[in-house]
Structure of [Ribosomal protein bS18]-alanine N-acetyltransferase:
Amino acid sequence: MIRDMQAADIDIVTQIEAMVQTHPWSKQQFAESLNSYQATVIELNKQVVGFCILQPVLDEANLLLMAIHPNMQGRGLGFKLLEESINQLKNNPVQIFLEVRESNLSAVGLYEKSGFHQIDLRRHYYPNPDGTREHAIIMVKACSDNFADLFK
Ligand SMILES: CC(C)(COP(=O)(O)OP(=O)(O)OC[C@H]1O[C@@H](n2cnc3c(N)ncnc32)[C@H](O)[C@@H]1OP(=O)(O)O)[C@@H](O)C(=O)NCCC(=O)NCCS
């Protein structure tokens, strides 16, 4: 089941985030995202196992963050969550942007499967724990149905 994130989800969402990110969002950032962004969670057996945060901006959107619990990855949940979260965007964006670490092959694979493609490379963008830096791939997904709606 995919539904809006609520205040009661913030503890588990913060825990999942801390398991998968080297620079995780804080509880406060997640709490603020409830008002500022579109935050969704995916449940399995009534347990939250993942989340997705999208930022609608005029007729576009940015994918800010998403994760699936490490024990639940590779089962199609990330794809389902991303597709449904995009469908639920109320501003019907014509395109959606995201940034992802170049080495994050599972995320890049997921985004490509969801229709995103690379448009740019932001060099030395992400800090690594060892002091080095990593490139960010900038990707975009064109939402052609929403684009066509602009001309109706
Ligand atoms: C990226 C992430 C959200 C993917 O979620 P998931 O539930 O594991 O992904 P799915 O099982 O839905 O897989 C969807 C597609 O992603 C790609 N993918 C998933 N895992 C992959 C892997 N280990 N290697 C390569 N591609 C992979 C595949 O294209 C897959 O489609 P397929 O099963 O038809 O081959 C998850 O791995 C995760 O939480 N990672 C840590 C946090 C993160 O990196 N978030 C994104 C950056 S903010």
In short: The chain has a mean pLDDT of 95. The chain has one domain: 2-149. The longest helix spans residues 10-20. Residues 54 and 102 are 20 Å apart (CA to CA).
